[in-house]
Design a protein that fits this description.
Strand order of the largest sheet: 2-1-19-18-14-3-12-13-17
Distance between the termini: 23 Å
CATH class of the largest domain: Alpha Beta
Low-confidence stretches: none
Number of helices: 6
Number of domains: 2
Structural class: alpha/beta
Mean pLDDT: 94
Order of helices and strands: EEEEEEEEEEHEHEEHEHEEEEHHE
CATH superfamily of the largest domain: QueA-like
Radius of gyration: 20 Å
Helix content: 10-25%
Amino acid sequence: MSSRLSDYDYTLPEELIAQRPLARREDSRMMVLHRGAQRIEHRHFIELKTFLRDGDLLVLNNARVIAARRFSDDGAIEFLFLEKLALGHWRCLVKPGRKMRIGTSCRVNGAEAQVKDVLPDGSRIVAFAADVSLENGGIVPLPPYMHRVPDEEDRERYQTVFADVPGAVAAPTAGLHFTKETLANLPHAFVTLHVGAGTFQPVKTEIIADHQMHSERYSLSGDAAKEINTALRVVAIGTTTVRVLESARRVGGDLVPQEGSTDIFIYPPQKIQHADLLLTNFHLPRSTLLMLVSAFAGREFVLSAYEEAIRERYRFYSYGDCMLIL
């Protein structure tokens, strides 16, 4: 049993963490894992189509990353806008939290921002005297392992070309490799899952089953449900898509249109039931995402693949290379 946090650890050289995207999205390398033969191939993302069959359907997450990070006018308080609750009211992460207790206020873009409540997860309900436009003055919230300030390039590149539904604070990174031209030639459908800040929170419990998973909002349209139900094989693009497919309500075995939230936590020895192939980036050690991938392909096989990726100098994490699991 791989039930301990230490079972999902590995050591990554700092220089393999991709700090910037490649010049072209489609130029990423692609490690291919053959689960049945326990075999690894080294290919490129542009070869993805050669591994697909008639009747396959790519399912992608079309969530759009919002420019969710901004500062108070004096620069003392940092806000990460997580969810709009009503006009002028947002759920936010606030740093430093000790300076923003219930009733405390500061000014953002000249308007008062006051903390109305502190939630159990540490986030705040903040009331803004004027509605906040994140696109005007907001900053793209790059992951903490990118040790640099976001720039204009990130506004485009830390976003999939099919991003459509605003609300995520982190990109569904497996989708970053696709161009419009690549996707146009492949049968596909979209789901939406708004990736939250919890995706970067470390697992702190040594027994992984004790970890409390964060909740994320998702939606599935009637058209997408119909296409997924009739596909011969479902090719999940990213772990966020897997979370939707495994969480979504079914009637008589078929998906139905729906909206909801999920705190599903997938780890071995659980089995992923509703995805046949998985395209995913390389994930942080000890992360819930690495555990999900291990549930799909087996922990030992996945960790051996990561060791080989390090030897072969693959690029890791959000702007890095990808892995196709067959």
